Every structure is written in C-alpha cells, then in structure tokens.
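Supplementary Text 2. Reproducibility record for the structural model of the 321-residue chain.

All settings were left at their defaults, and a single model was retained for analysis rather than an ensemble. We include the record here because the model underlies the residue-level annotations in Supplementary Table 4.
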Amino acid sequence: MWKTVARRLLILIPQLLALSLVIFFFASLMPGDPFGGLMFEPDFTLDDIEALREALGLNRHWVVRYVEWLRNVIVGDLGRSLVHARPVVDVIGERAGNTLRLSLLSLVFIYIIAIPLGIVAGRRKDTFVDKAIVFYTFFALAMPTVIFAVINLWIFSFRLRWFPFIGSVDVRYIPGTLDFHLSRLRHLILPALTAALLGTVGIINFLRTMIIDSESSDFVTTARSKGVPERVIYNKHILKNASLPIVAGFGPAIAGLIGGNIFIEMIFSFPGMGGLFVSSIQTRDWPVANGLILIFAIATVIGILLGDLFMMILDPRIRIR
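Retained model, structure tokens:
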C-alpha cells in the first residue's frame, strides 16, 4: 500500500507542473489587469498605470513570469495579491477554513441523506417509496444549483428566519466563545444542506443499483438456500459489497466540494474560496486565481488517492497498480 502512495505522490508532481503551466498560459491570454480601471481616476495618468505594471513585472513575457512564480511556489510562496496588496497565502488562508467547514458539513449531510434513501430504494424496488426516491433524484439532478439555493434562501432565511442569510458568523460574538461557534454552525447549516440535497444523486442511484443487482447474484442465492436470515444477507453480504465504492468516494467527494461550492458560496454570501476565486477572475488578480486553481487541483488529486486507499483498506484483495 505504501508503494502505491509513494508512486501516486511522485506522479502528482508532473501532473501539477503540467496543470500549472496550462493555467498560467491561459491566464496570460486574458485581457486586462487590476489596474485597467485606474485610467478613469483623476489622480492617475497612463504613465502612472504603466509604471505600476512595470514595477510588478506584468509587462514581462508570460514564460518569465511563470518560471519566477513556479520558483516561489516550490518554497511555499504563492506570490502577492495585486488587489489586496498582501501575500496570496494570507488572502486564501482567511477563506480556506470556511470552505473546509462547509465542505465537511455538506459531506456529512450527503451521506446521512443518501445512504438510507439508497438502501430503502434498493430494498423496496418498484414500490411507491422507491418511485418517490427516484423522483427526488431526478429533481435534484435537473434543479440548477443557483435556483435551488435562492429558493432555500428565500424560504428559510427571509420568510421563516430560521437561518442567517449572509456571512459565516455573527460579528457581535467574541471569537472562541460558545455563542461564536453556535453562530458559525447556524451560518453553515443552510448552505451545507442545500449543497447536500443536490449532491446525493450519485450515491442514491449507485447504492440502489448495487442492491438490486446483488439480489440476483450467486452468493445471495446460495445464502438464501442455506436458510440465512434476510437481515444477515443484507447486512453482511449485500450492503458490505455495495458500500465499498461509496466509502471509496469519500476522498474525491471532499475534493469536489472544496472546489465545487462556488455557486453556493456566492448565493449565500459565504466568505469562502469559491467566492474569492470568482472575484479574483473578475478583478484580474491572477496570483490569487492561480493559487486557488493549484489548491483545487491538489485537493482533487489527493482526494482520488484517498479514495483508492480506502478501497485497499476495506478490501485487501484490491491492489492498485
């Protein structure tokens, strides 16, 4: 297993190098920079703006800037934000905790909702309950994230006032206190639940299909012929085999949520990395945008690696070459 980890980590290096090169190249093709709007300011002239660009090296060829950026990344320096005038690591660090908490809570909700529904749908095939669950999966698959988030925000925040509608914590509370943590949890629940209700489709459909297919498999037929109780058959045989890929998808799911909650964070005005990524693109703050894309890529590759490791731990027969 450790050989697999070492091999995958070594493969990660050229993958990230190639990805960073593509990111930097396409970023260089985007028109404009953060200083384009200064030409409308009376205190700035075109010469002043050009001097700023020259001082920050924006006029140099993109290959030269990429090599310098890569040299800094190797030592843990993602550069300096052109808009915030601060190190990119500090800018991203302020948002990373919020995104991680939102992703983890969303994942908890996904598994809490999806696993029972998938099991019920598989065991009660073609019943009214199964059809209702299948209808829900079609609804979640077809519903745009933005529209669903706006509906939940209007119902539960503006109409019922059950949850806050903006931010990640109430500024009235002192950090570290119980009220502060409870306020942070209240700000997390609605966006996390919104993301989870739309993210359960894959697990529900997969678990349902696996249970239905296992019903007619040879090992289930043999167990029933020996008089094994149905409860034991489902818990020890069917669910055990159906749960392997679902547990293995835990790592990739975390990575997907870290980089995929952009719309959720924007609609709920949640200060996470997704909103920061959109704003960095809009303001042409390329150091921040490149740093975020690199973090999303690393999270994705590590998530896939964790998924493979979970499969190997749960089923020793599996050996990934």
